[in-house]
Predict the 3D structure of the following.
Amino acid sequence: MRNLLVLALLLAACRTAAPPPAPRDDARAAWPRIRKERIETLLPRVMEAVDVDAWVVFVRENHNDPLAMHVGGENAGGTAAILFFRDGRSLALSPAGEATALADVALHDEVRPIDRTADVFALAAEELRKANPKRIAINSSPRAAADGLSFTQRKAFEAVLGDLAERVVSSEELVIRWLSVKLPEEVEIMRRAAALTAQLQEEAYRTVVPGVTRDSDVAAFLKKRMRELGVDDAWAPDQNPNVNSGIDRGHSHATSRVIQPGDIIQTDFGIKVGGVWCTDIQRFAYVLRPGESAPPADVVQKWENGKRGSRTALAAMRPGVRGYDVDAAQRAWMKQQGSEYVPWSTGHPVGYWAHDLGPALGGAQRPTPPPDSLRLLEPGQTFAFDGFFAWKVGASDTKTISVEEMAVVTATGAEYLIPPQEELIVIR
């Protein structure tokens, strides 16, 4: 029996088609150029839109600002200050030990070396007095991505700002607006990464032997392929991928449950390429029972309901609509089809993080919509979003089909990054 099992696994591996090379190298090489373009073209427009005249980011070694790689401070040693002005100028005040390398990056208009014992906060304040900005943004916010300034740093900076301290505002809105829009080249990188993500999931399903393979085995296979291809996890490694052949578990890890005939398997999986861009895609499979040549009609109908929910959400996505409206459209379809309640939002921004910044495609399931769900969609924003259909399993449990795809908002609507899953993957 063991020999037969080994043979079955080898045959499954032979049937596996190798996906194209990961876009990691091209993406990593493209990031310095893309970052510079984002700073030169997108940032001044956003500063104008949110009425910020200057933005100061302090970077440092070991506990760096979350936005360090976006502003060129990812290799900081001693504390450095990077200042951006509404007119498009940028200035880096860097300890001499790192200043030469920072200048070589050619990201900022000026890199000014400073003595390692100098008070960088006082020097940054001096530059601000020269510019006399009305509103100065700093990275202090309840939003983690815009909260890189420690309490100690903020107190030290405010102490040397003097009366300019009254002009300090949070950079939260600036950061959200700036990072939520992706350049066309970034969208193309994410397309390739999304295609690889989906192909790896399909590859993993071809390794399943019903009655033998565990959810955790499928997850381990995907981890192995990630290592071979040199791509990173899009979110917490212990929960990526989440492979689940049983009842709903929400955001969780794959368990040792053995996959059985009649199971609907959900794989929620994301990769990060170039150390920058993330994906978040789900693929679903059905395990045939003995005597079945195709999924039964009730399973197909549940799949079609979820798939139609995804199409409904996509049709609602266009510039100027709220994230709330996209969620509401998808939930109206769910209600019409008799779906059980689903607590999760229809979708979320995806890009620099799996749960990125920007409009939330949610809020319709809550009495009071959260502020991000009331944000308006803009061209260039990228989302991961689900078409939901859920049903009861036993007295209290549920099973949810969540057809998660990725899309980008265009000038007139939205489009999938890659062709969406049309049919359940069948495991024989």
In short: Residues 1-22 have pLDDT under 50 and may be disordered. The first strand starts at residue 54 and ends at 59. The chain has two domains: 2-25+182-427, 53-170.
